[in-house]
Amino acid sequence: MVKIAVTGAAGRMGQRIVSLVTEAEGYQVSAAFEHHMHKAIGQDAGLTAGCGPLDLKVTAELEAGLKASEVLIDFTWPEVTLENLALCARLGRRMVIGTTGMSSKQKAEVEKAAQAIPVVMAPNMSVGVNVCFKMLKEIAATLGDGFDVEIVELHHNKKKDAPSGTAVRMGEVVAEALGRDYGQVARCCREGMVGERTVEEIGMQTVRGGDIVGEHTVYFIGMGERIELTHRAMSRDMFARGAIRAAGWLKDQGPGLYDMQDVLGLK
Question: In sequence order, which residues have a C-beta less than 8 Å from that of residue 17 and are 6 or more positions away?
Fold first, then answer.
């Protein structure tokens, strides 16, 4: 039985993780966390998630909850995630990180903590998206510099970071396959007289609106032909299921920083 603690248990993603853990054989929700001022504190985590009573209250006492758990699944904010990661490292607990929008410095902190505990961190936990990552590498390497690359991502109007972590990772995968530095070639804004498009740049366009769960399209645009690779998320369940799968996979891993490509055996 894998005992899973969930942060943001009353949020949209947290509720789905709690609910789907209860449906997965061999897994158990061992702790459910929220901010100490959240109205869900003290409520039954299962009722909050809409999956029936679990006889487990939502709490702000992270350390006590982690002591009763084996792995923490965290989809929050960079600063909160790093605080939670430091506690996991101190207590020797594994961690699955779905938080996006981290800076290079924050990612370096995750790498350092992963020297002590096993951590899975991925911008997207979806099995389908991770298959797309693998396909993008092969497509880009095959097409080479003869095709312009543009990435368009769409998300709901509550999303705080842009471009999305998934879009950034797609750009990084393509850039690596083409021998480019993503940080140097990513073009996130075009306005006014910007001049002709360069061969090396990778366009990153962002759309925000309504309740779009997530949609990503990578365009490889050549002379007289175009390839489009699109992934559309229809619900948050695919992210939750991927995170749960990662939590179970971590049980047999030693300290280190892993991603969903490792979990799915795609490397």
Answer: 4, 6, 9, 73, 75, 240, 243, 244
The C-alpha atoms of residue 45 and residue 231 are separated, in whole angstroms, by: 32
CA distance 7 to 71: 11
Q: CB neighbours of 154 closer than 8 A, spacing ≥ 6?
A: 207, 208, 209, 212, 214, 215, 216
Catalytic residues: 155, 159
Note the pLDDT tens digit of each residue in 72-95: 999 999 999 999 999 999 999 999
Q: Which residues pair with 186 in a beta bridge?
A: 202
Residue 243 has what pLDDT? 97
Selection from 243, 186, 256 nearest residue 7 by Cα? 243
Q: What is the pLDDT of residues 146-195, one digit of tens each?
A: 999 999 999 999 999 999 999 999 999 999 999 999 999 999 999 999 99
Please give the structure tokens belonging to residue 105: 């410095």
C-alpha–C-alpha distance, residues 189 and 203, integer Å: 8
Reduced to 3 states, what is the DSSP secondary structure of residue 201? coil
Cα–Cα distance, 195 to 193 (Å, whole number): 6
Domains in the chain, start-ordered, CATH in brackets?
A: 2-121+236-263 (3.40.50.720), 127-233 (3.30.360.10)
215-253: buried (b, 16+ CB within 10 Å) or exposed (e) per residue? bbbbbbeeeeeeeeeebebeebbbbbbbbbbbbbbbeee
pTM of the model: 0.86
